[in-house]
Structures are given as structure tokens and as C-alpha cells.
Design goal:
Elements (H helix, E strand, L loop, with lengths): L2 E5 L1 H6 L11 E5 H10 L5 H16 L9 E2 L5 E5 L6 H4 L7 H18 L5 E5 L3 H9 L3 E3 L16 E6 L1 H10 L1 E3 L13 E6 L6 E7 L4 E4 L6 E2 L2 E2 L3 H10 L6 E5 L6 H15 L5 E6 L15 H20 L4 H11 L2 E5 L11 E5 L7 H8 L7 E6 L15 H9 L5 E5 L7 H9 L1
Parallel strand pairs: 1-2, 1-5, 2-4, 5-6, 7-9, 14-18, 14-19, 15-16, 15-17, 17-18
Antiparallel strand pairs: 3-4, 8-11, 9-10, 10-11, 12-13
Helix pairs in contact: 2-3, 8-9, 9-10, 12-13
């Protein structure tokens, strides 16, 4: 049975192409949603961009016919702008405040009541990224769903970038003697490019080794970089050593790191970046950036120039640089950065339109980026550059993203079969015993 899908504003602002995501069913957009999109179109962020994209899509579709009467979509479905939201009586009995959310609910409820009278019955489904909206719809007896079309078929625990294999003790000895093993021993494991294997001896569980799968050569290679110290930083656990291995490998151009706060993602990436730019001079510059999304209530406009405005958002990066560079004051740190002339801390807002060649690029808090933003960033990467994307997919501050629908998860899933990419999920918090306990309990 075909369905009628009523789209909330949050769905269109999340994915402008959601108009075409419901097959040959009917898509209904309440008129009040158009008003809300109109209010967002002048914003300079991704929300504004998506609002303008929705407007362009609807403008193209209206060339067929009046949108209020309905138009055919390329996938066989139909699209209609519904003007029925003024009939508020059925919703007002439970939610009497006249606001945009309740008007959208009124459209869905009125359509549902109309469908019950129609000979050709269609179930009505409200699609919304707003959890409260879905709860209110449920209380009115309206079927409601999250927008699932762009959910990644990927579970946070599924692909960590490494796996443990129990092998005979002599294989661990052979691994150390030869500096690696042929992958013929692990054919059934279905290893992905640059995936790590933690070899553990069956007879002696404490006897172990770490190797990286080189798919092109068909070899499990021993660590080249992960066991060493760089800028005073050495991997404290297996995950950190694996991360250093791929961060310092020039053949791997895209590295993704996920994990809880305090697992060392930022510190390791900065240490590797300094090693490659300042010591080895492989890259001309270390570019560090992050999305500017507040946690909790925003502090409003900030005084000063661009660097002064940016400081509160990138302070965690400065904290790590103070540790790596051994400075004890902000003034000394800034003097050191100016003297090195190889570190640039930039707002992510300004990366659009740029081409970034021969640079070591670090994007922190990448879980707050959408698929479109992450594509924009990676397509800026020029010849000879390396990019590191990191974040905690369980701590997302963007209103329309979650752990299964964000740019970082999207990239991990799309690039896990590529030789140029590697991923590591951190489990162990190394900041302090208290931080580890808090991460586990809270």
C-alpha cells in the first residue's frame, strides 16, 4: 500500500534531496514549512545553504504545475504543497498553542482523517528529525519516523580499524623475526586496507604483536612508526600506537580517529603533524581547524579580530600545543608559533573555495559536520596533502545529526575499503584515571 509522507522543516534543512527519497509514494510539504525555510535562506551556514537548495528544487518542480495541486517526481512519486494547516480544530484539543510545529501536526492529522474517508486508502507518516515532534505525533495517533534515508549502515562498534586474532605462539615469533606475515593466514578474516591485527599467542596470552594489513602487497606488516617517540609523545596503548603508525605513514592520505574525550586523538594528531611539517618538512604547513558549534548556550558575538574571535573555539588545540611545544604562557606559545611559521589555526568557515596543497590538515570535532560539509572539506585537499578527521560520534552538538548520520561516520564507512585511508577507534582514556572512570560511568 502506498503512503503519504508529510515532511517536517528539519528534514528538508537536513537533506534538500529528501524530496526524492520516498519512492513512488506521495510527499506532502505543509505551507508553514515553506515559511520556515524562507526564514533560513539568508543564513551563511549549512542550514542556509540547504534552505536555498530546497527553494531551487521546488522552483524547478513548479514549472510542471502548481505545487498546491501536485507535481510528478522523477522517481514516480508526487509532491504537493498542502495549504490545509489552517484547519486547527483536531489538534487544538490536545495542543492548543498555535505555532508552526502544531500546524505541521494539523496537516498530518487532517490528511489522516481524509484518507480514512477515501476509497483508496493511504497511510500517513510524519517524517521529522525533531524527537519532540515525533512524540507529539504519536500522542495524536499519527505514525511518525525519523528521516532514515541517509543513515549509514554502520554500527559504531563494527569497524574499529583493528581486530584481535588468536594464533599459535610460533606465528608471533615468526612475525617478529620476518617483520610481517603473508595474509594467506588471514584470508577468512576479510581484512580491509590498513586494518590492524593484534596477534595474541594461544599458548601465552600475554605474548602479542601488532601488524598493519598492506592490501596491495598482501602482507601483515610490523609497525614502523608506532613504537617511537615524537615531540615527547609515545603511544601508551595499542590503539595509540596504531594511530601513530597511520598518522606518520605518507602513503595514507586520509586518517579518521574516533573515541571518547581524553583518548589522545588531538594530541597524537598534532604530534604527528609537527613531526611531518617542522622536522621532516614533508608538508609545508600544519593546518588545524574545527567546526564552530557551541556546546550549551552560545556566548554570542565576540569582540576583536578573527584570531581573537576564534580563540575560545580552538582553545583545546592551544592547550595541546602548549604541552608539545613546552611553553608555559600564551604569549610564549604565540611567539613560538610565529617563529615556526608552519602552523595555521583557521576557522572551518573559511575553507570553502580554497585549494590546500602540500599541507597536513587536522579537522577536530568532525562529528559535527554534515555529509555535504565533509565532502566540501575533502575536495579542498590538494596534491601532496594529508587530512586527519577526528571526533566522538557519541557527542554531537549539531541539531540535525546523530551517531549514525554525520559526516565523520559517513567518511569512515565510505573510505574503509580504500588503500589511501585508515581508521582507528580509541577505547581507552589516557587523560587520567578520573577521566577514564567518568567516560565509563557517565
Amino acid at each position: 500500500m502506498k503512503k503519504t509522507f508529510v515532511l517536517d522543516t528539519s528534514v528538508l534543512l537536513h537533506d534538500p534531496r529528501s524530496l526524492y527519497a520516498f519512492g513512488d509514494n506521495s510527499v506532502v510539504i505543509p505551507a508553514v514549512v515553506i515559511e520556515e525555510i524562507d526564514k533560513k535562506k539568508n543564513l551563511l551556514d549549512i542550514i542556509g545553504r540547504n534552505a536555498r537548495e530546497v527553494a531551487r528544487e521546488l522552483d524547478d518542480l513548479r514549472q510542471q504545475n502548481s505545487l498546491s495541486k501536485g507535481v510528478r517526481l522523477e522517481n514516480g512519486g508526487t509532491l504537493q504543497i498542502e495549504l490545509n494547516h489552517k484547519s486547527f480544530a483536531h489538534v487544538a484539543e490536545w495542543f492548543n498553542e498555535i505555532n508552526n510545529d502544531n500546524r505541521i501536526l494539523a496537516v498530518a492529522l487532517n490528511l489522516q482523517l481524509e484518507q480514512r474517508k477515501d476509497e483508496i486508502k493511504k497511510s500517513v507518516v510524519l517524517i521529522s528529525k525533531d524527537t519532540i515532534m515525533r512524540i507529539k505525533a504519536d500522542s495524536l495517533g499519527i505514525e511518525s519516523q525519523d528521516y532514515l534515508h541517509d543513515k549509514i549502515e554502520y554500527t559504531y562498534e563494527n569497524y574499529t580499524g583493528y581486530r584481535e586474532c588468536v594464533v599459535p605462539s610460533h606465528m608471533v615469533d615468526r612475525f617478529y623475526e620476518e617483520g610481517g606475515l603473508e595474509d594467506t593466514y588471514f584470508k577468512e578474516e576479510g581484512l580491509l586496507p590498513n586494518q590492524f591485527i593484534l596477534l595474541r599467542a594461544k599458548e601465552i596470552p600475554s605474548k602479542s604483536a601488532i601488524g598493519r594489513f598492506d592490501k596491495e602487497a598482501g602482507v601483515i606488516r610490523s609497525l614502523v612508526f608506532g613504537e617511537n617517540t615524537y615531540w615527547g609523545i609515545r603511544g601508551r596503548n595499542a590503539e595509540q600506537r596504531m594511530a601513530m603508525e597511520v598518522l606518520l605513514n605518507d602513503d595514507i592520505k586520509l586518517v579518521t580517529l574516533t573515541g571518547k574525550a581524553g583518548t589522545g586523538k588531538t594530541l597524537l594528531a598534532l604530534a604527528a603533524g609537527l613531526q611531518k611539517t617542522n622536522d621532516e618538512r614533508i608538508y609545508k604547513k600544519l593546518l588545524i581547524t574545527k567546526p564552530v558549534i557551541p556546546v550549551g548556550r552560545d556566548i554570542g558575538y565576540l569582540p576583536g579580530d578573527k584570531n581573537e574571535k576564534l580563540r575560545p573555539w580552538v582553545q583545546p588545540i592551544y592547550d595541546n600545543l602548549e604541552l608539545l611545544l613546552g611553553t608555559k604562557s600564551l604569549t610564549k606559545l604565540e611567539d613560538t608559533l610565529i617563529g615556526m611559521n608552519r602552523i595555521e589555526i583557521e576557522a572551518l568557515t573559511y575553507i570553502r573555495g580554497r585549494s590546500v596543497p602540500n599541507q597536513f590538515i587536522i579537522i577536530d570535532e568532525a562529528q559535527n559536520l554534515t555529509k555535504h560539509e565533509i565532502k566540501t572539506i575533502i575536495t579542498r585537499v590538494g596534491e601532496g596533502s594529508k587530512i586527519v578527521l577526528m571526533g566522538d560520534t557519541e557527542q554531537i552538538d549539531h541539531p540535525y545529526l546523530d551517531s549514525e548520520c554525520n559526516g565523520l561516520t559517513y567518511i569512515i564507512n565510505k573510505f574503509k575499503n580504500e588503500n589511501l585511508a585508515a581508521h582507528i577507534t580509541f577505547r581507552k582514556v589516557e587523560r587520567s584515571a578520573l577521566a577514564q572512570l567518568a567516560a565509563n560511568l557517565l
